[in-house]
Each structure stands twice: as structure tokens, then as C-alpha cells.
Fructose-1,6-bisphosphatase class 1 (Ottowia thiooxydans), 336 residues
Amino acid sequence: MSRSISLTRYLVEKQRVDGHIPSQLRLLLEVVARACKRISHSVNKGALGDVLGTAGSENVQGEVQKKLDIIANEVLIEANEWGGHLAAMASEEMDAIYLVPNRYPRGEYLLLFDPLDGSSNIDVNVSIGTIFSVLKMPEGDRGVEERDFLQPGKCQVAAGYCVYGPQTTLVLTVGDGVAMFTLDREQGSFVLTQDDVRIPADTKEFAINMSNMRHWDTPVKRYVDECLEGREGPRGKDFNMRWIASMVADVHRIMTRGGIFMYPWDKREPSKPGKLRLMYEANPMGWLVEQAGGAATNGHERILDVQPGQLHERVSVILGSKNEVDRVTAYHHEHA
Ligand code: AHG
Ligand code: MN
Ligand code: MN
Ligand code: MN
């Protein structure tokens, strides 16, 4: 029986063998993984812990915060503020950036996260997760400002998510492929269970919230209609549909067996490019998908090329199996 590879050993090899990541980044990722373990513990308590239901407050997104949104946010802040690896953090649940107490020499990384993704699934025991993205703090000894975070997704140095489902699984890239780690609760450690994740270029499975159909733009309507026409239609094959409404769970399915995920612009809020947030949902997920051989666009351009203008800005998201994403993107260009 080959010895299992822990997250620590995997990261040490990325640092020492491949020289791919510096020790500061390895240590930061270990801190984030430990925080995800703690969040998983709270998630698993459910009704037995005081973690379900709403907190009665509203976040900067205009969403009613769930107790677990706040718990997960606090776990990530607390775990990282003393680590010494960070200059600052940003979160879906916090209006402004969070400067790390400067009692230490300032760390060189910026950590962004969606502490609890899929909040509408918390109280119904459906998979939820945490999404994170790591950027480098720009050079210079001035104070950290929001503009330091406004880097395109292609500047990320690490990205990942942890899905709290039947298993707790951490999925991570540092820029040379994607690896999956499953939490071994007896050992209390993440164990490598899939290395070099690959997304098939073709698929028969699409993920979109169909209740928004009447609000979609033409390219998306055309693509989904063709999928629904099945083998008698222009695609010549039948499609399946999935929508879990936790991005981490829908993306994890795609990382595992392929598919296309779409949360496109729609007419409900025409001034907003989409529902999902660029900096801590679309960028980390977009990089992971690309690193696994998939594609991620906003219908017009590569998500990772989008120049952010604001910390909490939203973006239209089309990601997954490359040939399907290319098709939807081509439809956007045809109908532009
Ligand atoms: P969050 O819970 O962090 O606010 O994110 C929820 C997002 C994403 O996880 C999911 O894909 C999408 O909202 C689901 O939206 P609908 O409920 O409109 O389908
Ligand atoms: Mn939210
Ligand atoms: Mn989210
Ligand atoms: Mn969230």
C-alpha cells in the first residue's frame, strides 16, 4: 500500500523539489487549509451547534448574512492575522479590506475569500464551501490599499476551494496543475486523492439556473435551447442538467467529470454584469478550471484577463469543458 501523501508533503515538494512556490506561500496555504478544517467542523455540527439560520445582518452585497457566513469569515480572519504571511485580506462578507496587524514584518501576500459559498444551502444540508485566491502584494513600503487587490485573475499565485459535502475536499492550484485532497478525519489531515485533475473538453451536462431563462441574453438562450433539443437538434446528442446553487459544488462536479457552468448576465439587474463576484469566486474558479484544461470566459473575454475596477465587482461566468465554453463564447461574438 503506497504511503499516502499529505497536503504538507505535497506543498513541501512543490517548494523544495519543483522550486515552484516559496516557503511563505506554502505556509500560507497550510494556514488556509487548517481554517477550512475548522469551518468543516462547524458546518458538520448543523443543528447541534449554533450555526444555522440567519445572523440578522446584511453584507456589502446586500445579502442577508447567515450565521455560518460570519463564523467562516471569522475563522479565516483569525487563522491568518497572526500567520505573518499576509499584508491584508478581502472577503465577500466584509465591505473594506482587512489590514493585518503590523506587529510583524508585513507579509507579502494578499488573501481574498468567499468564506461560505452556497449560503442558501446551509439550512437544507446541501454541499457548501469556501473559495480562496492569493495575490502578491505589489512592491513598495507604502500601506496596503484596495487598489493593491485590483489585479487580473492571471496574476494569482494560488487558488482553491474546499467543499463541505459527504467528504471535505480541498482543491488547489499553485500554477502547475490541480490537485484534490480529502480530509482524513481520523488523522485530521488532508490527503492527496487526485493529482493532475483534467476536465474533458466535451460534455453532455450543463449547469444553469433555468428559472432565469426569460431574462437571458440571446447567446445563452440559443445555447441552452440547442442542448434541450437533444439528439434531434443541432447538437446531435442529449444533454443532462444539474444546478446545486453552490458554485463550489457545481464546479467540483465539473472538475471531477466535466460539464459547463453558466451564471450569465441577465435582464433582472441589467446594470450588473452578473451575480457572481470576480475577485473571490470567478477568478479562483476560473484559474482552477484553466489549470485542469478547461476554459473560463465572461462571454466576451477570458475571465482571468478582466481588469478589476472594484473589490466586489460582479462578472458573467461561463466555465468548464473547453469546447462547450468556446461554443457559448462564439455565440456571444456572433450576436454582439
Ligand atoms: P454565496 O452563497 O457565496 O453568496 O454564493 C452563492 C452563489 C453561488 O454559490 C451559486 O452558484 C449562485 O449563488 C446560486 O445562485 P441562485 O441561487 O440565483 O441560483
Ligand atoms: Mn453571499
Ligand atoms: Mn459564493
Ligand atoms: Mn459566500
Summary: The first strand starts at residue 54 and ends at 58. The radius of gyration is 19 Å. The CA atoms of residues 46 and 52 lie 6 Å apart.
